[in-house]
Amino acid sequence: MLRQKGFTLIELLIVIAIIGILAAIAIPMYRAQTVKAKLTEVTNSMSNVASAVGAYYQDEGKYPGTGMGTATIIKNSLGVSVPVGVKYISAATVTANTGVITFTATGTGESLVDTKTITMSPSTTDTGAINWIYGGNLGAAYMPKK
User: Fold this and answer.
1) Partner of 68 for a Cys bridge, out of 73, 96, 109, 118, CB 3.0 to 4.6 A?
2) Terminal alpha carbon distance of the chain
3) Phi-psi domain of 129 (left: phi exceeds 0; alpha: psi -120 through 50; beta: other)
4) Closest by Cα among 83, 70, 123, 72 to 99
5) E strands within 1-146?
């Protein structure tokens, strides 16, 4: 008897179903990771500003007394450049007397992220150390870890 070589239709359909299931899981995870990667520009810039606010606090014994509502004022007051309007940051502020840093994200392509804010609030210990706590109205899946 002659034997045919190749795959049966059922075998091919099973392979296609497995590929479809893997794609259904992988594509949303890939999208979330690309948005998180875009947010690193925001969190890295926030960390730079937090370092400058912390240095101000250590030098002066208090947080800046005047609010800093734009990137230009932050740069002139703290010496830290913030890339507002370049890619993923649409606004940056430092609140007077509290040192709370607020950045607004934009351009990531995710509705749970764009136009939402990320905050870093300082909490000082008895020894003068500053602990920064993330907050804001960003989607929980995209909120930076401590």
Assistant:
1) 73
2) 69
3) beta
4) 123
5) 89-94, 101-105, 117-124, 130-136
What are the sequence ranges of the domains in the chain?
9-139
Q: Quick check: 42 and 91 in contact, CB under 8 A?
A: no
Q: Is the pTM of this model over 0.85?
A: no
Encoded amino acid at 108, one letter: T
Task: Label residue 73 exposed, middle or buried (CB < 10 Å: 0-12, 13-18, 19+).
Answer: middle
Beta strands 89-94 and 101-105: pairing type?
antiparallel
Evaluate whether 138 touches 105 at the Cβ level (below 8 Å): yes
Q: Which helix (H) or strand (E) holds 14?
A: helix 9-60
Cα–Cα distances (Å) from 120 to 58, 85, 123, in that order, read 17, 20, 10
Percent of the chain with pLDDT over 90: 50
Contact 116/138 with Cβ under 8 angstroms? yes
- Topology of 9-139 in CATH? Glycoprotein, Type 4 Pilin (3.30.700)
